[in-house]
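Question (not urgent): is this output format expected?
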Amino acid sequence: MRIADRIEAEAVELAVLGVRDNGTEFNMALKAEPGSAAGTFRYYAEALDKVAGEVAPTPPDVLGLVHRAPVGVVAAIVPWNFPLMIGAWKLAPALAMGNSVILKPAESASLSLLRLAEICAECGLPDGVLNVVTGRGTETGAALAHHMDVDVMVFTGSGATGRHLLAASAQSNLKRCYLELGGKSPNIVFADAKDLDQAAKVAAMGIFRNSGQVCVAGSRLLVERSIHDHFVDQLKTHAEALRVGDPLDLNSQIGAVNSSAQLAANLRHVDQALSEGGNIVCGGQQILQKTGGTYMAPTIVTGVTRDAALFQNEVFGPVLSVTAFDSEEEAIQLANATSYGLAAGVWTADLSRAHRCIAELRTGVVHVNTYGGADMTVPLGGVGQSGNGHDKSLYALDKFVDLKSAWIQL
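Got this back:
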C-alpha cells in the first residue's frame, strides 16, 4: 500500500521518466504508467486476505489440505512500450505471494523501473527482495534465462525472444516460463453497429495511440463490405485529425515512435503492403523530420488480403490494415487466420452475434462495442503465438505459487 501511495505521489515525475525513454504521449503515459502501476500494487495488497488454501473433501479419517507456497525467485523481463505498467503487472503479484524478484527492463527504457526500485526500498521492502538489473537481452536476459536459481520467468515482448527463453529453460533447470508475445488483433465492424462514427473514432485510437506500440492494438480492421467505403472515410477523418508531436506537449494526442530502427521497420511494412496490392488511404510516411524526432503519420492501408504480410505480421507501429468481409462466418475466419490470439474487437447491435463472436474468436480478450480499457478485475493473456499465462486479476497470482498438498491421517 505504501508503494502504491508513493507511485501516486510521484506520478508526474514517473510519467516524464517514461516519456523520455519511449516517446509515449504524456496524457496517456500519466494514466497508463504510474496511474496503472499504483492501482496494480493496491489491488494485490487488497487481495492478500482474499487468497486462501483449501480443505479437500476427504473421508472423515483424513484431513486433506492444499497450501499455496512461494515459488522462490522470479525473473521478469519487460518491454519498452509501457515499462512501469507492465513491470507492476509482474512485480506486484510476485511480491504479494512472497517471492523475490529480479526485474530486467528493456535496455532503451529503464528509468521509471529504476526509480520504482528506489521507491520499494524507501517503503520498507527488504534488501535483496527486489533487484532491477539493466543490460542487453543477449547478456542480462540470457543470464537470467539460464540461471539455475531462477524458478519462474515472466516476459512480455517478441515471439523470437520468447522462443529463446523457452530454449534456455530447457537447457537449464526447466524453470516455468510465462510469455506474453504480442498480437495482430482483429477489430470487426458489422453493418448493424449502432454508431459507426463512434466505432471509427475508437478504432482509430485502438491502433494509433502510443504510435501503435501497444500489444493489444487493433491492427487489423475487418469491415462488412456494405459499409466499407463509408467507414474508411470516417476512419480517415479521425486519423488525420489526431495531433502527432512532442510527447511532453499536453496538446499532442500521439507521441513518437520509440526509435529510428522501429520507425524504419514500420516504413518497410508499408512499402511491402504497397508491393502486395494495398492502397494507402492516409499516412505512410515519416513526419516532423525537422524536430529530429522519430514521428510517423497514422497510416491506413486498404485492400489488404488474408495472405498479405501486413495482415499476418505484427508491425508494432501506427499502421492499420483494412480488409472487407461479406458474412459473419467470413469475418470469424479472417479474424482467426493468423498465428496470434491476444485480443479482438466486435462492433454490432446484435446481442446474439456478439456472443457467437466471443465464443468463436480464438483470442484471450474480446472487446464488444469498444476497444481497450479492461482493468485489473479481468485477466490479460493470449493463445497461440501470443503466449501463455495471464497478467492482471487474481489469476495472475497462479504464476507465482506452487501448490502443496498435505494428506493427514487422523
